[in-house]
Amino acid sequence: xxxxxxxxxxxxxxxxxxxxxxxxxxxxxxxxxxxxxxxxxxxxxxxxxxxxxxxxxxxxxxxxxxxxxxxxxxxxxxxxxxxxxxxxxxxxxxxxxxxxxxxxxxxxxxxxxxxxxxxxxxxxxxxxxxxxxxxxxxxxxxxxxxxxxxxxxxxxxxxxxxxxxxxxxxxxxxxxxxxxxxxxxxxxxxxxxxxxx
Length: 197
Prior knowledge:
disordered N terminus, single chain
């Protein structure tokens, strides 16, 4: 088993730069910080489990997984995770990403709300789900070293995320009553979980 770095640095690649620009251009600060925490937590959890993900793919998925919740990329009828996955895939391919990488990132984004995705055999896909759930709901925080948690929260404070997600998920569930978000809000009381996380 390999140990997790104290604070995962994002990959220094052109595609990671692209994802960072897309995130910063579209997302409000609380969502930007959430995406960075998602990546750092995913790295820590996966390494705790002895997995070595493709760091670039993991970062691309984490950075862009909530793109469909942003005003720039919100879609009136397509669930946010599906639309965001399509937008990310198209952008990556347009900027020269191999098809396999673009497909992997697409799946990581599209599946990150699915409750079974944490068991996906692809660590990059599982990681976006695990990192996001750790940040939003506090799940599996015991798999992240305390030092890493402290450093991540200092670098990317969680201020404002709960309010942003509450509004975004309420809107998503209202306008798309059959989407995964609506199911989470209606059947799993996601907003209550968010409030008490």
